[in-house]
Write a structure and sequence with these properties.
The chain is α+β, with helices and mostly antiparallel strands. The chain is 29% helix and 21% strand. Strands 1, 2, 3, 4, 6, 14, 16 and 17 form an eight-stranded mixed β-sheet that branches. Helix 1 crosses helix 5 and helix 2 packs across helix 5. The longest helix has 19 residues. The radius of gyration is 20 Å and the shape is globular. The two termini are 36 Å apart. The model has no long low-confidence stretch (mean pLDDT 95).
Length: 343
């Protein structure tokens, strides 16, 4: 069951002036002052929206939370950009981006990766010509395999959030809620053992980033991050795929990026059983323009169905945020306490 709230015309009428004022005050969604202020600014959202998001955060009523009905003028958006590098400045979706940021900031702190989309906090999810068959969110003709977001990293987010700007072909996001699995027939104890090798996914590789940011200090830190990513590819860290409460466990797995060499027979059988159940319980969720969806990255895996991109400016276009409930947990990976980028 999806935890769902639909914004009303009255909600949009109240939210609109707030977004307009903030868009005038800040240059882009990456403005550090806007990011810092977001948790306070979020208090200006409709109280029923705040209560809804707080219930999702603390009560865990579902692994999927959907806020629908945000006003989106698709004509004003213009064409879907051909690449994420083309979308940061003078964004035609700035009002929607601000709303998305404020909602995410109710659930926790947004953060980004130095190794993804040149260290931006808010990512673009759109088809890129030449990526059709890559295991990346920018692919199209290939299914995006289901996974825990950034399963390989100890600082992965609590939530991965998506906001839909365009989805004319009703391309489905696929989700499996851990609450739908029958844990009684799975070897939970074996899945709690730290024997499973999780490797970095392709989105963190240097060939998918710009060669230089123009800032020598940032480039040096980013090079260190890419070197660490490579070391984890060469010598994957062994971790459990389940953690938390054994009667209702949390998940961390990405089968496409996992090497099974050397796993004990019991671990292989337990992992196969878990994957089989997830495959059987996957559900399709087609996002509409104005939808903001928050996926509990501890309690769900997600992917995407394949589609044929047109590259004519009309293709599916989403925004993405990573959200953590424990920003301090990544302090060793960030240059300063208030820096949101993990290096």
């Amino acid at each position: 069951m999806i935890h769902h709230l639909a914004l009303t015309p009255e909600d949009n009428a109240g939210i609109g002036p707030l977004l307009t004022d903030l868009a005038k005050e800040h240059a882009s969604i990456e403005d550090p002052r806007l990011i810092r202020r977001a948790p306070v600014l979020a208090r200006s959202l409709p109280p029923r929206l705040l209560e809804f998001l707080e219930e999702y955060r603390l009560g865990e009523p579902s692994a999927l939370c959907r806020v629908s009905g945000l006003a989106v003028d698709e004509a004003a958006l213009g064409p879907t950009p051909p690449h994420w590098r083309d979308s940061q400045h003078d964004s035609p979706a700035f009002h929607q981006e601000i709303f998305f940021l404020l909602c995410a900031s109710v659930l926790g702190d947004v953060f980004g990766w130095a190794t993804q989309q040149d260290g931006r906090l808010m990512h673009d999810v759109l088809p890129i010509r030449g990526h059709e068959h890559y295991e990346l969110g920018s692919n199209s003709l290939q299914h995006l395999s289901w996974h825990t977001e950034d399963a390989f990293h100890p600082c992965r987010g609590d939530y991965v959030a998506l906001m839909c700007l365009k989805n004319p072909d009703q391309v489905a996001t696929t989700v499996c809620d851990a609450a739908d699995l029958d844990w009684s027939v799975l070897d939970v104890e074996a899945l709690f053992e730290p024997v499973f090798t999780q490797m970095p996914d392709n989105s963190h590789r240097p060939e998918n980033a710009s060669e230089s940011t123009g800032d020598p200090t940032v480039d040096r830190l980013r090079a260190r991050s890419f070197a660490l990513i490579q070391s984890w590819n060469d010598d994957p860290v062994r971790r459990p795929v389940l953690f938390g409460d054994r009667t209702s466990p949390y998940l961390a797995l990405d089968p496409y990026h996992m090497k099974m060499d050397g796993w004990p027979e019991r671990s292989l059988k337990a992992f196969a059983g878990l994957c089989d159940q997830i495959e059987a319980k996957m559900k399709d969720v087609s996002l509409e323009p104005g939808d903001c969806v928050f996926i509990d990255n501890f309690r769900a895996v997600h992917g995407r169905r394949s589609f044929r991109a047109r590259y004519d400016g009309s293709d599916r276009w989403l925004k993405r945020l990573n959200v953590t409930r424990n920003l301090r947990g990544s302090r060793a990976w960030r240059p300063a306490p208030d820096n949101r980028i993990i290096y």
